[in-house]
From TrEMBL:
Gene3D superfamilies: Formyl transferase, N-terminal domain
Superkingdom, natural source: Bacteria
Positions annotated to bind N(1)-(5-phospho-beta-D-ribosyl)glycinamide: 11-13
Record protein name field: Phosphoribosylglycinamide formyltransferase
Role according to the record: Catalyzes the transfer of a formyl group from 10-formyltetrahydrofolate to 5-phospho-ribosyl-glycinamide (GAR), producing 5-phospho-ribosyl-N-formylglycinamide (FGAR) and tetrahydrofolate.
Residues at the catalytic site: 109 (proton donor)
E.C. code: 2.1.2.2
Protein's gene: purN
Pathway: Purine metabolism; IMP biosynthesis via de novo pathway; N(2)-formyl-N(1)-(5-phospho-D-ribosyl)glycinamide from N(1)-(5-phospho-D-ribosyl)glycinamide (10-formyl THF route): step 1/1
Gene Ontology MF annotations: phosphoribosylglycinamide formyltransferase activity
Keywords: Purine biosynthesis, Transferase
Family listed: Belongs to the GART family.
Domain Formyl transferase N-terminal, chain residue ranges per copy: 1-188
Length: 207
């Protein structure tokens, strides 16, 4: 299975995918390209170190969103991937891309959807919301991307304890280490092995 990984920042989720392909935990998968909207994303350095082609394409380089969407989709299509993985990608996915890659785009969100998700909930803002609400358990969700924000069919989730003296940064790191870096690679492996189907908006996993 050929995948494209879309990134905007540090790339720790990308690194987890690279490492688990190399360790054999993710079967039958090759990263064809890493695409970022941010030329300074450390994720691009991680890709280069791993010998993976990195591409930078940003809305800032285009006169309007429509021309970016067209260029982004053309670039992605040129790699003929089976799956698109959004690993901290802070760009709105073009509706045409969601149609063309129905149930072939997955995203990692750092909460237990449907809590603390949707517009405005990204990065540290998610964990700030968790702490201000005082929930005792949070976690991460890997889901298929549809036309909404964090609304697609849920593939995997993993719970993480919220501790009394957590700061947003400490909680973010725990959610990454204990949940994100586990469930995103596992979702990719399950899809690569043909274990995942979507029926009326619900995901079935059969190993
Ligand atoms: C993570 O917090 C992830 O939950 C969110 O964006 C961040 C990406 O971090 N989608 P990294 O670039 O993978 O380190």
């Amino acid at each position: 299975m050929k995948i494209a990984v879309c990134v905007s920042g540090g790339g720790t989720n990308l690194q987890a995918i690279i490492d688990k392909i190399n360790s054999g935990e993710i079967h039958n998968t090759e990263i064809a390209v890493v695409i970022s909207n941010n030329k300074n994303a450390f994720a691009l350095e991680r890709a280069a170190k791993a010998g993976i082609e990195g591409v930078c394409i940003s809305p800032k380089d285009f006169a309007d969103r429509e021309s970016f969407n067209k260029a982004f989709l053309e670039k992605l299509d040129s790699y003929n991937v089976d799956l698109v993985v959004l690993a901290g990608f802070l760009v709105v996915i073009p509706p045409e891309m969601i149609r063309n890659y129905r149930n072939r785009i997955i995203n990692i969100h750092p909460s237990l959807i449907p809590s603390f998700c949707g517009t405005g909930y990204y990065g540290l803002k998610v964990h700030e919301g968790v702490l201000s609400r005082g929930v005792k358990v949070t976690g991460a969700t890997c889901h298929f991307v549809d036309e909404g924000t964090d609304t697609g069919p849920i593939i995997l989730q993993k719970a993480v304890e919220v501790k009394e003296d957590d700061t947003p940064e400490v909680l973010q790191r725990r959610v990454m280490e204990q949940a994100e870096w586990e469930i995103m690679p596992r979702a990719i492996d399950l899809i690569a092995r043909g274990c995942v189907t979507v029926e009326s908006g619900k995901v079935r996993i059969e190993e």
